[in-house]
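Before a computer can learn anything about folding, someone has to put a protein's shape into writing. The outcome of that step, for a single protein, is printed below:
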Amino acid sequence: HDAALVIRGLRTLPLRLQRSDESAKYLISRLENHPKVERIWYPFHSSFPQLELAKRQMRGCGGLFSVQFKTDSKEKMEAFVHKLERFLMAVSWGGHESLIIPTIGFYGIPGRQNPPMPWTFVRFYIGLEDPEWLWEDLERAMGEL
């Protein structure tokens, strides 16, 4: 049964990866000039230090990218994360739904060291949803920052 599911999924994999890649690029283009965005981490972004290497080695980058937001308040960052309605908080990249992993969720855990990334850092995976629909959600949530 698992093999049949893999074969079924492989039939549409190129289309799903293309959609995820295109949607991520669209969202990055909207985020890159937003006043609440400090920095974008994405191999095909003009600010990426190894952009030329990425272009030589890859045709696309899929739906993964990270954003460091501008805010001086952990409470505002948490409010932003909780305001998002169209992104699930999960770590399973590659599915049909868009996901986030906010670093703020790993700060202040008793008995654990804080992560090396700042608490304003969020990892995104963009799924198959309409990118404008996702942008509306991001824009609304950034109002909390």
Remarks:
- The chain has a mean pLDDT of 91.
- DSSP finds four helices and five strands in the chain.
- The CA atoms of residues 17 and 62 lie 6 Å apart.
